[in-house]
Every structure is written in structure tokens, then in C-alpha cells.
Amino acid sequence: MKFTKKPLDSEIFTGSMADITFLLIIFFMVTMAFSSNRGIDFALPEDTTTAAEISQEESVDVLVLPGPVDGPPVIQVDGRQMPINELLPYVAEKLKQNPSKPVILRTDPGAVYGNMLAVFDELRQAPDRIGMKIDNISIPTQREIENIWTMLGIGQ
Amino acid sequence: MILARGRSLKTEARVFTGSMADIIFLLIIFFVITYKVEVDKTHMDLPKTTVRVTIPESEKPAWISIAPRREAYLIRVSTGEEMSLPIGTDEELVTFASTEVARNPEKDFIIKADREVPYERFDAVLDALKQSKVKNIYLLSEQKTVEQ
Predict the structure, then answer these.
(1) Do B31 and A46 touch (CB under 8 A)?
(2) Under a CB-based contact definition with an 8 Å cutoff, are residues B115 and A114 in contact?
(3) Looking at beta carbons, which residues of chain A come within 8 Å of B57?
(4) Of A67, A83, B14, B83, which has the fewest Cβ atoms less than 10 A away?
């Protein structure tokens, strides 16, 4: 009797591969992050006591007041209210007298974060707009401001 | 060949799917390469700025997010490796930031805050970071266009 050997079909089943790959694509698309990964950098002083030594007279004092969220920020510069587009020319004049003059950016607690960032953005544009870099932009916190006032013996 | 009169040839309508597998594989490779998990998924209206720098991703920066009003300005924190978690008090924020700075003194921090957040909330976060001796922070923003 003669036995004939049946050839074996060796095949990898790939029928479900399309489903798996579709599932993978859906997973990646759903969990993918297309968020913003850019912003304004801000270096904090290593020693906080240095910032406290800056007195208001030898700096440009910018105060952001409560204002409309969508409109231009309302600011007071060295005690005088001015439109945001006049801020950099004013700072340029001050920097011509003293290039290392610091700019203190204070914000009223009732103002919104977006307005403060708009003013900070304006100050950071100084190299392009007025051709000078503001070396020292300080954003003191409310606690630091209160500490300075306490040191100077001034009540708020 | 003789065609029978009145009988038309059958045409097969078929969509060619042979290259679908290649396209899908290319898409998967694209997603695998560019995949990045968003550690904080809080939806918010970020402030728009002209000056924007790319945040370095080499050393995973820590995230602090301040949610908009509809979420009661809730603060969430993340080490940059795990999903963000809400925190209750400013002291917890100081503890979190101090721990991260103790692990890596050069650690960058990203603040993601809605543009309508009261400055008071941001001030508390900034104060906590200053107390924790953080060196560099990035204030997340969107691109400001000419019209804006």
C-alpha cells in the first residue's frame, strides 16, 4: 500500500490584522496631544532678598489694573495711567538714562492673569520694538510687596 | 471571438484596497513617533502672546494648571510623567514644588492658566514656586495673530 503525504498549508492568518491596526490608529488619535508647548519663559531670581532691595524710585513701576478681559490691559506706569502702546517708548526713555534699570511688573489682585501676561508680552518685545533689551523684568508676588512695605514702614 | 448580439460584457466594480495596509502602517508609524501623552487635559482658553519660546522637552517639566471659572479655578499638578492631580491648598503646592526641586534643582515648571483666572490665584502659584526656589518657569500661551 502506498501512502501519499498531504502537503500542509503553513499560513499565518492575517484577516484580523486590519481590525487591530484600525484599533491602534483610533487609540493614538484619541490620546494624541496636540496641545500648545510654547509660552513665555520667565527666570525667577535665585535669591529672593535681592529683588526686595530694588526700590521703587530706581525702577520703572508698571501696575496692571483691573480691566476688560478681551480689551487692552489698563496700566499705570510710575503712577500715571497710560495706554499699552505708550509703555515701550516710555521704558526706552528710562533705559537710555540707565540701561540696567529694572522694570517691576505689579498686578492688582482683582485683575485677570491674561492682562498681566499681555503687559509682560509687551515688555518682552522690547528688542524688536525699541531696539533695547530689558535685562531685568521683575514680577513680585503680593507677599514680597507686603514685605517691602513692612521693611519701609509703609502700610498698604 | 464572436459576441452574442444583445449581451453586454459584465464589468466588475471594485475598490482597490491593496495599498490600505501600507497607508495604515504609515499612519501607525507616524503616531508612534510623534506620540506624546498630555499630562493635563484641562480645557482652557490660554492667553495669546507674540513672544513664544519652545519649552524644552528633554527634562520633563512639571505642570501646574489653573482651571477656568467653570471648574472653580482648581489647581492641578503633575511631575510631567504622570497625569495631573488636583491639590487643595497652597501648602500642598509648595510641598510638591519643593519635592520636585529637591529631586532636580534645574527642573522647569510650566504654568498653564486660563486667561480669565484672577491674578490672585496666579500670584499664589508664583509665590509657592518662589518659596520652593524654582529657577525657570514657562507661562503657556497661544500665538497672537496680527488681527489680535
Answers:
(1) no
(2) yes
(3) 37
(4) B14
